[in-house]
Write a structure and sequence with these properties.
Length: 279
């Protein structure tokens, strides 16, 4: 056998061995158990967050006016606040006084005229009642008329003058504080106008410094001017309305007091004539 035949036999043997090896490997893979599928992990729940609200501070409000304003702007603002607080305080106090005076008038109509005498009727009224004060002044004037220089004046005029003095004192007390409301109502708009002029001055100054009238340069001063104008009106309008309302209620309350005084005057004169006093 020559060398070529030997080479062919060896090549065929090697090819057969390679074929058997490949077939064994494929058979082993086919018979091997397939791995179990791995369960997928559950997805995490998606949490929806609310949209974040952006807090934007107002750079042209009252807080900014106080922080960025100079001493004149702050002083004007303080004056307007004092005017407003004073107006509301006086208005509430005067309203309480008027309600009390009207209540005393109803009490006098129910109790005083049912008493057997003026002195006993006055004793039935409250100690701080204006009607009791008026009754006591009239009774005192009628009782102390004789034996003094006052006797030279007839009883009618003397008692009338005493009652009128008492009414004037009560009316003056009722009018206290109303002048402040009138002053605030007439001057608060001009105080606010002063703040407006000062804010416009700042706006013109900002324009002159910047060399151009951009909105960011004049928005602050112009906003300051508008706030001052609004505050002046907000202070003045309640003061004017409160003043007119309280004055009208004062007239009604004092009319009832004067009517009571006229009736008391006639009662005291009738008692004086019965006692033989000069009328």
């Amino acid at each position: 056998m020559n060398s070529l035949s030997r080479f062919r036999i060896l090549f065929a043997a090697a090819l057969a061995a390679l074929t058997l090896s490949t077939a064994g490997t494929a058979l082993a893979q086919a018979t091997a158990p397939s791995p179990e599928p791995v369960a997928a992990a559950p997805a995490a729940p998606v949490i929806s967050l609310p949209p974040a609200t952006e807090v934007v501070s107002n750079p042209y409000g009252i807080e900014a006016l106080w922080k960025q304003g100079d001493f004149i702007a702050r002083g004007t603002l303080i004056i307007l606040v004092i005017m407003s607080l004073g107006s509301w305080y006086i208005g509430i106090v005067k309203l309480i006084e008027q309600v009390r005076l009207m209540r005393d008038g109803r009490e006098a109509r129910e109790k005083f005229w049912k008493a057997p005498s003026a002195a006993q009727g006055a004793a039935l009224l409250n100690e701080d009642s204006a009607y009791r004060y008026l009754s006591q002044e009239g009774i005192q004037a009628a009782e102390h008329h004789e034996g003094t220089l006052e006797e030279q004046i007839d009883l009618n005029n003397w008692v009338g003058m005493s009652l009128q003095r008492s009414i004037d004192a009560i009316a003056e007390k009722q009018q206290n504080g109303l002048a402040f409301l009138a002053t605030v109502g007439s001057t608060a708009p001009f105080v606010g106008l002063f703040g407006t002029v000062w804010g416009i001055y700042h706006a013109l100054t900002a324009i002159g410094i910047a060399g151009q009238a951009s909105i960011d340069k004049v928005a602050g001063p112009v906003g300051e001017a508008l706030i001052m104008t609004a505050m002046g009106l907000a202070v003045a309008v309640p003061a004017v309305l409160g003043y007119n309302w309280l004055v009208r209620r004062n007239k009604s309350a004092m009319a009832g007091l004067r009517q009571f005084s006229s009736q008391l005057h006639m009662v005291l004169l009738a008692g004086g004539r019965k006692d033989g006093r000069k009328a």
